[in-house]
């Protein structure tokens, strides 16, 4: 009798131990998804952060998240998964955290998740088993993007601009080319979401843009996109001009307000134009030689022909046709030296003086000088022959008799 009682008690003890072992063998595995957004109802294209956190009371040998499917979003993972050890309710847990940046592509109520994490567990005795931990599902209400000036929509946490010039464009040296570098950085957006470069066009300006540079830096708080634009600019005329400002609207997701990014206006002028009056006059001999010559020859001409003298403007135009132009000599000297930049500067001045467009007549030379092509590819001598013909046609002399008839003069009969 006593033996049977001992046997029954021993069996009961084994059954309790087995049940306790079975309960202890069942690990505590949880995976939770949470949303972080700057607004309760974000706009289309606005960044939404999703955090997946798993807490596992088990020894994990292998793991992987199954394919994430988010059909109404574009998304990217913010770095690698972060693993850590901790204790909860006196028990040791292994934790994992994955962060995603989501960008909704359409308005409405959109579903996020559930997400699945496949784990391979070791029970401590060498036996392995595979399980899938499923997270909760989330709903997100998304508003359509609002109308903006120019139609460009850029939601971001912060946007900054760095607008740098390598020289003072208001006092350019003759023939100088200015370089403008603009860098735009947006926190909470990728580089692909940043706007395209503006078109820098003005009738008085020659401008070439280099290939843009776009980069995206991944941080745990979201991506940081950067775009860099670079232009090389120079005036095609001697008159000053002003490059207009360019505005880029963007939406501040933290303050929930529209803001404006500005590429500031810029004045272009050569330093010789803004030099103090009198400086150029002291260096020009014709400022005193020409009036002296006119004072000597006008009375003599009037006495010999016994008629009223020509006005100073007509005589000056005729003298200029007779006397060789100083810029013609300088242009020829630049051609003989092979100095393409000096040749272009002097030729542009002569063309502008006659009302011709330098950027049209000198397009091939500009392509070589400002796009980095080899200058040797331009035949300066052929270009010089064409330009001399153009200038010759523009300098067709006016008939002096036309002027006389316009003034009411007639030839006096002899005798």
Automatic annotation (TrEMBL):
Q: What is this protein called?
A: Oxygen tolerance
Q: What is the lineage of its organism?
A: Bacteria, Pseudomonadati, Pseudomonadota, Alphaproteobacteria, Hyphomicrobiales
Source superkingdom = Bacteria
Signal peptide annotation = 1-24
PROSITE patterns, alphabetized: PROKAR_LIPOPROTEIN
Record PANTHER family:
PROTEIN BATD, PROTEIN BATD-RELATED
Q: Which UniProt keywords apply?
A: Signal
């Amino acid at each position: 009798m006593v033996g049977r009682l001992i046997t029954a008690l021993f069996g009961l003890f084994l059954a309790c131990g087995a049940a306790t072992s079975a309960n202890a063998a069942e690990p505590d595995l949880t995976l939770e998804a949470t949303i972080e957004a700057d607004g309760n109802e974000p706009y289309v294209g606005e960044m939404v952060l999703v955090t997946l956190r798993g807490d596992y009371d088990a020894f994990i040998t292998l793991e992987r998240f199954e394919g994430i499917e988010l059909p109404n979003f574009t998304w990217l993972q913010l770095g690698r998964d972060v693993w850590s050890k901790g204790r909860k309710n006196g028990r040791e847990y292994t934790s994992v955290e994955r962060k995603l940046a989501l960008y909704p592509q359409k308005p409405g109520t959109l579903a996020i998740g559930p997400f699945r994490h496949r784990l391979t567990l070791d029970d401590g005795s060498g036996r392995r088993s595979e399980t899938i931990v499923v997270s909760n599902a989330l709903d997100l209400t998304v508003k359509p993007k609002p109308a903006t000036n120019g139609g460009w929509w850029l939601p971001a946490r912060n946007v900054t601009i760095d607008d740098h010039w390598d020289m003072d464009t208001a006092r350019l040296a003759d023939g100088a080319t200015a370089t403008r570098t603009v860098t735009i950085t947006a926190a909470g957006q990728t580089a692909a979401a940043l706007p395209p470069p503006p078109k820098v066009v003005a009738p008085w300006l020659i401008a070439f843009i280099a290939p843009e540079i776009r980069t995206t830096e991944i941080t745990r708080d979201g991506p940081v996109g950067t775009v860099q634009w670079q232009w090389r600019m120079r005036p095609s005329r001697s008159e000053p001009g002003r490059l207009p400002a360019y505005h880029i609207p963007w939406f501040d997701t933290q303050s929930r307000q529209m803001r404006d990014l500005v590429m500031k206006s810029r004045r272009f002028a050569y330093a010789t134009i803004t030099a103090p009056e009198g400086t150029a006059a002291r260096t020009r001999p014709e400022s005193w030689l020409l009036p002296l010559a006119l004072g000597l020859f006008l009375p003599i001409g009037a006495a010999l022909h016994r008629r009223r003298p020509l006005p100073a403007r007509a005589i000056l135009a005729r003298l200029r046709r007779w006397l060789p132009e100083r810029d013609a000599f300088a242009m020829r000297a630049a051609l003989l030296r092979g100095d393409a930049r000096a040749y272009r500067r002097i030729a542009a001045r002569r063309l502008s003086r006659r009302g011709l467009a330098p950027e049209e007549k000198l397009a091939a030379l500009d392509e070589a000088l400002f796009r980095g092509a080899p200058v040797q590819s331009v035949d300066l001598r052929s270009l010089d022959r064409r330009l001399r013909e153009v200038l010759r046609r523009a300098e067709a002399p006016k008939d002096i008799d036309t002027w006389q008839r316009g003034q009411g003069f007639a030839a006096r009969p002899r005798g």
